[in-house]
Amino acid sequence: MNKEPVNRELFDDVMVPNYAPGTIIPVRGEGSRVWDQEGREFIDLQGGIAVSCLGHSHPGLVGALQEQSEKIWHLSNVMTNEPALRLAKTLCDLTFAERVFFANSGSEANEAAFKLARRYSWEHFGPEKHEIISFRNAFHGRTLFTVSVGGQAKYLEGFEPGPGGIHHAEFNDLETVKKLISKEKTCAVVIEPIQGESGVVPADPEFLKGLRQLCDDNNALLIFDEVQSGMGRTGHLYAYQMYDVVPDILTSAKGLGGGFPISAMLTTASIATSLGVGTHGSTYGGNALACAVAQKVVDTVSQPDILKGINKRSGHLRKGMMDIGERYGVFSEVRGAGLLLGCVLTEKWQGKAKEFLNAGLEEGVMVLVAGADVVRLAPSLIIPDADIDEALVRFEAAVKKLVA
């Protein structure tokens, strides 16, 4: 066994430098608290970036993993497995969907969605109808296709040329979509109901309703990227249910596995037929271990009491952060839905979101950023009120030092 010390310096020696992690290395978690190598305790308002929806070491998830680990870990897609079938049936029962494709990450789910949209249009309308409309500042993943569809040039820089046939409209501006969409060329419009990485910006309800109508009028598919907004994050199982706008394709990941890698693409039976045998695949997609854990996540999060509690916790956390923002002049608003919140920095503090993250760590509370101007919060959906209270105390201490 390698006895070399495991510390932040080792990262620079052995890892590709595409990340810049902090010096803290957590080694244990329970509920909404984690402990680092030195035994320091932190309250987790990051949630693994909206992934650890039931916190750390949730007994139900641990039990599901242990139970399945003694049966079947992995087969292949030459055959199916019971956990995958049960999970797919559950997702269909709880959503608009009639068919499910499993993969391992949000990027892969979105890749599948974009391929399906093009394939569907190719089969029904011909090869000219292949264009995809997305939105500026969107984020849909890190594959070459998904960074091209995402509306942030920095993620494509140095990897060009990307796939063609992709256009970007302005978020919450239907007129810009009308200028780009056409019955002859547009195969799909893809949108995050709440833009996550660019600042936790919710879509206007009327804007999404308008997109649905435009897609219907132009024989285009509407794709909702719910990688971050899904699995209870907004207080609904999926955000489309909050908006009452039904997409043709929906992608889910992050919270779906509660920390175990899994993603899903959900769609209708008629659209799904376009991905016939051999058209797409994933070696690990539908992995029995992942599906068994995700089944427990879905069964838990979909309970009415859990979903109701998310909005209660949201109000508690939102008010606490806004109070801090007003006392110290650091936040102009707290936006978002459920437990996906963005604390927008005032003009004086714009560009300094990372300073709030670092100051929070010094006081024992973990927060996120969403761009340079927004402090993002995405804690466990079942975080106890006592942990919210303590997190607010610690974050206020961090802000007090920062503004001194």
Structural description of this entry:
A seven-stranded mixed β-sheet has the order 4-12-11-10-7-5-6, with helices on both faces. The protein has a four-stranded mixed β-sheet with strand order 1-2-3-15. A four-stranded antiparallel β-sheet has the order 13-14-17-16. It is an alpha/beta fold and 404 residues long. It has helices at residues 8-14, 47-50, 59-69, 82-94, 106-124, 144-149, 174-178, 205-217, 239-243, 269-272, 288-301, 304-328, 353-362, 385-403; strands at residues 26-30, 33-36, 41-44, 99-103, 131-135, 166-169, 186-191, 194-195, 201-202, 221-225, 249-252, 263-267, 331-337, 340-345, 365-366, 368-369, 374-377. Helix content is 38%, strand content 18%. It has two domains: 8-58 and 304-403, Aspartate Aminotransferase, domain 1, CATH 3.90.1150.10; 71-301, Aspartate Aminotransferase, domain 2. It holds the Pfam family Aminotran_3. It catalyses: N(2)-acetyl-L-ornithine + 2-oxoglutarate = N-acetyl-L-glutamate 5-semialdehyde + L-glutamate. Pyridoxal 5'-phosphate binds at residues 139, 225-228, 283.
Summarize the structure.
By secondary structure, the protein is of the alpha/beta class. It contains 14 helices and 17 strands.
